[in-house]
Amino acid sequence: MKWRGRRGSSNVRDARGQRVVRRGGGLAMIVNVVLRTFGLKGILVLVVIGIVGWQMGLINPMALTGGSRVEQVEYQPTAEEEQLFQFVTVVLADTEDIWTREFSRVDLQYQAPELVIYRGQYPTGCGVGSARAGPFYCPADQTIYIDLSFYRELERQFDAPGDFAQAYVIAHEVGHHIQKLLGLTDKVSAMRGRPDYNEYSVRLELQADYLAGVWAHHNSHYLERGDIEEAMRAANQIGDDAIQTRTQGRVVPHAFTHGTSEQRMRWFDRGWTSGRIEDGDTFDMPYENL
User: Fold this and answer.
1) Domain total for the chain?
2) pLDDT of 66-103, one tens digit each?
3) What's the confidence (pLDDT) of residue 64?
4) Alpha carbon distance 243, 261 (integer Å)
5) Residues 62, 176 within the same domain
6) Which residue, 170, 154, 283, 179, is CA-closest to 216?
7) Could you tell me if 161 and 216 lie in one domain?
8) Buried (b) or exposed (e) across 32-68, using 16+ Cβ within 10 A?
9) From its phi and psi, is residue 159 left (phi > 0), alpha (psi between -120 and 50) or beta?
10) pLDDT tens digit string along 147-186?
11) H-helix or E-strand spanning residue 144
12) Which residues of 88-114 are buried (b: 16+ CB within 10 A; e: fewer)?
């Protein structure tokens, strides 16, 4: 991907020199009081109430654990990491330009997300984010979070090297932001707790892959030979079936949340071929046809 010397986004926040410090254990105190007063039955009731409250969006687990604060620490990035940081700013700028035009084409106004680059852990509107979870989009604060160490994992653990594979990851998360702007994220979130919730989660993720493909379509003048293959390889390596096979040795379809490798590649390719936001409706078709 041709990215050097191009505009970087001003919506990237560098939080690599910040560290999360946990505060006191409010949850431990609650459990201790319930245990002393009601015994193990009380704990079981507390767990049920907590799960139901979390699914309904009434309870924030981080609030119960006492939350956290951020402190500044000394940090000096390597030259390689700093280059990767600049790469991320250029990719985000590309998404801003492309989605501003594409939204305007369908008479909508695009509002660009912020992207936070952090290390280890970082407080977000969706709780404390962790590098172990990989890059993610938080709908509550409309922000993308990424620890750059994920890209080493993408190359070594998932065998998906290349700068365009890295760009695809960002474009996918921006796709989730677009879904938030269009109201789709909130509709799916309201289904949490339903037996078919996972199916709607898969629909949401496949549509984000499609939107990443749309971005690639409009970014084609900056692509180099092999770039699309890099993105397709990344999509293949992070399908639910591929990850389940690597981590547990078997595939459990009813536990899918992101879609199979084949589905993820296919929907990215559809976006790459179409280049139109309106052709990526993953909700108006039978689940088995996705």
Assistant:
1) 2
2) 556 777 777 888 999 999 999 999 999 999 999 999 99
3) 53
4) 9
5) no
6) 170
7) yes
8) eebeeeeeeeeeeebeeebeeeeeeeeeeebebbeeb
9) left
10) 999 999 999 888 998 999 999 999 999 999 999 999 999 9
11) strand 143-147
12) bbbbbbbbbbbbeebbeeeeeebebbb
Q: Is residue 6 part of a domain?
A: no
Q: With respect to residue 204, please indicate whether it lies within any of the assigned structural domains.
A: yes
Would 75 be classed as within a structural domain? no
Q: Which amino acid is at 270?
A: R
Q: Are residues 34 and 158 in the same domain?
A: no
Is the whole-model pTM more than 0.90?
no
Contact 66, 24 (CB under 8 A): yes
Residues 89 and 41 grouped into a single domain:
no
Same-domain status, 105 and 153 = yes
Does residue 53 share a domain with residue 192? no
Residue 76 in any domain: the answer is no
Higher-pLDDT residue of 53, 276? 276
SS3 72: strand
Cβ count within 10 A of residue 131: 18
Per the structure, the complete domain to which residue 40 belongs is given by: 24-66
- Cα 108 off chain centre by: 23
In whole angstroms, give the CA distance from residue 153 to residue 161: 9
Q: State how far the Cα of 256 lies from the Cα of 209, in Å rounded to an integer.
A: 15
DSSP β-ladder status, 114-118 and 136-138: unpaired
Q: What is d(CA 171, CA 93) in angstroms, rounded to the nearest whole number?
A: 11
Q: Quick one: 35 and 124 in the same domain?
A: no
